Amino acid sequence: MTGALAALWQAAAFAQNQAGPPPVFKQELPNVNLENWEVTVSVVDYAPGRVGQAHRHAGFVLAYVLQGTVIAKISGQPETTYTPGQMFYEAPGSTHEVSKNGSATEPAKLLAMIFAPKGARLTVPVQ
């Protein structure tokens, strides 16, 4: 009986290790046909104290913070502070109302993945 319990425990431990760590981010995506779309991936540098202008993107965006602290507010969502390893999502048609470095002394950096129709203007300022 002890051998069977040990084998069961080992199997459970193996299965748990196979599951891996939890995802960094999970987000439902818009119902779009991606034919004639492309993804553009860019590194966005935020100098200390940088405050970006409100803007929109042609499609949807996934952003991953690489360094520092980024503060963002996307229309319909609260203003949120993101740190390295965290992500946020911008739905099609949403406005990136706040985009700024959370530090006046340290740089910040994020990886922006913009999914949009080929040839579209990726970023449009909002007045």
Overall number of strands: 9
Strand content: 35-45%
What is the fourth-level CATH superfamily?
Jelly Rolls
Would you tell me the structural class of the helices and strands? mainly beta
Shape verdict: globular
- What is the makeup of the main sheet? 5 strands, antiparallel
How many helical elements?
A: 1
Number of domains: 1
Residue runs with pLDDT of under 50 for 5 or more positions = 1-9
What is the CATH architecture assignment? Sandwich
Run of helices and strands: HEEEEEEEEE
End-to-end separation = 72 Å
- The side-by-side strand order for the widest beta sheet comes to 5-4-7-2-9
Regarding CATH, which class? Mainly Beta
Query: What do the pLDDT scores average to?
Result: 87
Helicity, as a percent range? 10-25%
